[in-house]
Specification:
Layout: H1 2-8, H2 10-15, H3 18-25, E1 35-43, E2 53-56, E3 62-64, E4 70-76, E5 79-86, E6 93-100, E7 110-112, E8 141-145, H4 146-150, H5 159-163, E9 169-170, E10 181-182, E11 190-194, E12 197-198, E13 203-204, E14 215-216, E15 223-229, E16 243-249, E17 258-263, E18 267-276, E19 286-295, H6 297-304, E20 308-322, E21 327-342, H7 350-358, E22 361-376, E23 382-402, E24 407-430, E25 433-452, E26 457-478, E27 483-494, E28 507-515, E29 520-531, H8 535-538, E30 541-542, E31 545-546, E32 554-568, E33 571-588, E34 610-630, E35 633-647, E36 654-656, E37 663-672, E38 677-686, E39 690-691, H9 696-702, E40 716-717, E41 721-734, E42 737-746, E43 759-761, E44 775-777, E45 786-794
Parallel strand pairs: 1-7, 11-16
Antiparallel strand pairs: 1-4, 2-3, 2-5, 5-6, 8-15, 9-10, 11-12, 13-14, 15-16, 17-18, 17-45, 18-19, 19-20, 20-21, 21-22, 22-23, 23-24, 24-25, 25-26, 26-27, 27-28, 28-29, 29-32, 30-31, 32-33, 33-34, 34-35, 35-36, 35-37, 37-38, 38-41, 39-40, 41-42, 42-45, 43-44
Length: 795
């Protein structure tokens, strides 16, 4: 929907901020000041490590941590660096490609883990393993730093859009949504955690029952790093089937205030960061970071005569209080205000008319707020973490027969989902063992008033129930530390679904990592995972009866094997083979298709009668070559070949899924030049993907409701998706101020996005519908490069 709109905005985007661009290029940056790089060095329990060495690679600058683990590297010239921390008996750790500015720098904290290598047998080299992964997840895991997120070409400062470029993730249909389609799984198979707090929604205008949307709501200025696990999930996470996306936020500065302003072609963000209740102390025990973002896409669309008005706000905050050396409390918050409306233009072509006819009206409100308490045990044996949170989604989704006059509403979904969650975990380190266990309980409340005249049903439903679970995980090095063994399990149950108990969702998992000579490593994991069906499914009423109370938890079994080769301090190559089996997937009784083939569009997923009889399988091989910043060059290259198939009502017939593109390839890389210039590029490719054709006869009768012919699933395929993006960054470091100007071009080659044929009703010259009703096919939209200019200001 937004693809054509973005293309039409190219002239506006090109002109936007041009005056600011010229002004910034005229600035003389010779007055840049020297700055201090600070942070703390700790072990995995949060205990300070005094005497650790922290230095900037390829410089003579460094420092030794004091009794509190704090270091201060002074007289640093702003620029891009790799920051290294080391201490005898611990594995070295490197933070690659950090950007040191004259203002707005964050603290860089290290958590070192004790070395598993006998110091008498080897010579310690700096950071042998560039791929930093938890022992519970030795496979299918990748982390991006704050710098990588903020300067990602084609990412438009959207954290979720950046994650779409990671290995094994397919672009959404048309390439303009933030759906995470991982290794052939459905878009709603990923869970999200923000500093340990689970958040169900991270996108504006999200698809209820699924998770994607056109724009992410997380402010990139908040994020320290993001980690995506695509096949191996630690036992503390419930509900993932294909992925776990963990966002770690910055901690506010305890000593001084700073401001960050980010302006792009579609939005403006304002972020404040600093201490609270500092008084005359050098450093406060309480800090904050808070932001608000505002879209102005609606004004740009009005300017170029497009009928859609996507209007959104979002807000984010984190307040951290350090009680003492052992206890820290975080107050976290994230929310959005979204309104998607229409404003019909006086003149409209066929494409605009179809967009005006078929677009929904969306009014959404989301909010997540939580308290996270982390307490380190005084005997230094471990720590515990408790998170209490509440989140809700309010979604008023409407569709009219005539969007211009708002006459004859034929579908409305007015729903609220609310969850209150308590999560607790404890981790112990003793000898060579690591033990982690805990549990979670949540109350779920769901209310929905829906009517649908196309399928002739309406209901007013309300459900309220509890869900709870327990987990345990143990980890140990054996065979003289060459083999790491990790064992874990989960148990989940709820008070709503009939016939379920804790044992029926017993989900064991095992991970093995064997260190070979000469920097080779073999990894293998096997696990079982469960997901509760969406509230839209559980709360569906048919003639006053909750017909889906007998729905089952969706089950997915994963088997992954991989080999990893570390070439040096900054580069590695990994090859992984994976196989996923699905069972008890919900299948629609309306169109006999698995819900795994839905959820990547502007719709409501699961508001229907289902049966839990679906099966699925996705399997393939993935190759990843990663080069962290070295000699001014960095990059990630990946290729995934996979097959994705799901069944419908007939569980013996496997059909290609809508995500079965077979081939996924991506490249992202950049080069740091002199005088703070940087060029970077991203390439994404996906093979031909199946699509469901339109049922022309039924659609002509129900238009603007579009009816898909799922009986023909797998018969037709879209053309391949390919997109090349390019970005240029120029940074200035002035006294007490830093400026980053960026110029981003999406779809440099101007390729058209693959899309299924679209239709609209045939009309006469006056705009009246011709009877008997028939459909006209729209001409495919042409591709075009989309330029964007923006800047980031820190002071």
């Amino acid at each position: 929907m937004l693809t054509a709109s973005s293309i039409k905005l190219q002239d506006v985007s090109r002109a936007l901020l041009l005056a600011g661009f010229c002004f910034l290029l005229s600035i003389n940056s010779s007055s840049q000041a020297l700055v201090t790089v600070s942070g703390k060095v700790m072990d995995l329990t949060g205990r300070s490590i005094p005497g650790a060495t922290v230095y900037l690679q390829n410089t003579t600058l460094g420092d030794v941590s004091d009794a509190d683990g704090r270091y201060d590297i002074k007289n640093v010239t702003p620029g891009a660096y790799n920051l290294v921390a080391s201490f005898i008996g611990y594995d070295n750790q490197t933070k690659f490609n950090i950007i040191i500015r004259s203002a707005g720098n964050q603290q860089y904290n290290f958590e070192l883990k004790e070395s598993s290598i006998n110091l008498t047998e080897v010579v310690i080299e700096p950071d042998k393993n560039v791929v930093s992964r938890a022992r519970e997840t030795p496979l299918s895991t990748l982390t991006l730093t704050a710098t990588e997120l903020a300067t990602y070409p084609g990412g438009n400062n959207d954290v979720v859009q950046v994650a779409q470029s990671l290995p094994g993730i397919a672009p959404s249909a048309g390439g303009f949504r933030n759906d995470l389609i991982i290794r052939g799984g459905a878009p709603n198979e990923t869970v999200y955690y923000l500093d340990g707090m689970e958040i169900p929604n991270i996108n504006h205008f999200s698809t209820q029952g699924s998770s994607g949307g056109p724009v992410g709501m997380l402010n990139v200025s908040f994020i320290d790093d993001v980690t995506l696990s695509t096949s191996t999930f630690a036992a503390q996470y419930d509900n993932p089937l294909s992925g776990v996306l963990q966002f770690r936020q910055r901690v506010g500065d305890r000593s001084k205030l700073s401001t960050n302003i980010r302006v792009s072609a579609s939005e403006t963000a304002l972020t404040f960061n600093g201490p609270l209740f500092k008084g005359d102390k050098e450093e406060s025990k309480t800090s904050f970071i808070v932001s608000a973002r505002r879209s102005y896409l609606q004004f740009l669309f009005q300017l170029v005569g497009l009928p859609i008005r996507p209007d959104y706000w979002d807000y984010q905050f984190k307040v951290t209080h350090k009680f003492d050396d052992y206890n820290t409390l975080d107050l976290l918050g994230l929310g959005s205000i979204d309104n998607f409306s229409l404003d019909p233009p006086a003149e409209k072509d066929a494409s605009t008319q179809a967009l005006l006819d078929q677009a929904p009206f969306i009014d959404q409100r989301t909010n997540a707020i939580g308290l996270s308490w982390k307490s380190r045990f005084k005997n230094r044996s471990g720590f515990m973490e408790t998170v209490l949170s509440n989140n809700y989604l309010i979604n008023d989704f409407k569709r009219y027969t005539d969007n211009e006059t708002l006459d004859d509403i034929f579908f409305r979904n007015n729903a609220k989902e609310a969850e209150t969650k308590l999560r607790h975990s404890q981790k112990y380190f003793f000898n060579e063992w690591v033990l982690n266990f805990g549990g979670n309980v949540q109350r779920s409340a769901y209310r929905n008033k829906t009517f649908n005249t196309v399928y002739d049903f309406s209901f007013d439903t309300q459900i309220d129930f509890f869900k709870y679970g327990f987990f345990a995980n143990v980890n140990k090095d054996v065979l003289k530390t060459k083999l790491n063994v990790n064992l874990g399990f989960r148990l989940d149950d709820d008070t709503f679904i009939e016939g379920n108990d804790l044992l029926s969702t017993f989900s064991p998992r095992v991970s093995l990592s064997y260190r070979l000579a000469d920097r080779w490593k073999l990894n293998a994991t096997a696990g079982r995972y469960f997901k509760l069906p969406p509230y839209t499914v559980l709360g569906f009423l048919d003639n006053g009866v909750l017909v889906n109370k007998d729905a089952k938890y969706i089950q997915s079994d994963h088997l992954v094997f991989g080999v990893e080769r570390v070439f040096g301090p900054a580069s590695s190559l990994s090859v992984e083979g994976f196989y996923k089996w699905y069972s008890d997937y919900p299948v629609s009784l309306i169109d006999s298709v698995s819900l795994a083939n839905k959820g990547a569009g502007f719709e409501v997923l699961g508001n229907e009668d289902i049966v839990s009889v679906g099966k699925g399988r996705t399997y393939g091989i993935e190759v990843l070559l990663q080069q962290k910043l070295s000699k001014k060059i960095y990059g990630i290259v990946s290729y995934t070949y996979f097959i994705s198939q799901f069944t419908g009502l007939d569980a013996s017939v496997y059909l290609p899924s809508l995500w079965d593109s077979r081939h996924l390839a991506s490249f992202t890389g950049g080069y740091k030049m002199k005088r703070n210039w940087e060029v970077s590029s991203r390439m994404r490719y996906a093979g031909r993907t199946p699509y469901v054709p339109t049922d022309l006869r039924q659609t002509a009768l129900t238009y603007p409701n579009v009816v898909l012919d799922y009986d023909r699933l797998g018969d037709l395929k879209l053309s391949a998706f390919a997109q090349l993006d390019f970005r240029i960054d120029k940074k200035w470091n002035l006294k007490n101020m830093s400026i980053d100007l960026f110029f981003d071009i999406q779809n440099v080659l101007g390729r058209s996005n693959p899309q299924a044929p679209e239709y609209l009703l045939a009309r006469d010259g006056s705009g009246a519908v011709i009877e008997p009703r028939s459909l006209l096919a729209l001409d495919p939209s042409e591709g075009s490069a989309i330029p964007s200019i923006g800047f980031v200001l820190d002071f």
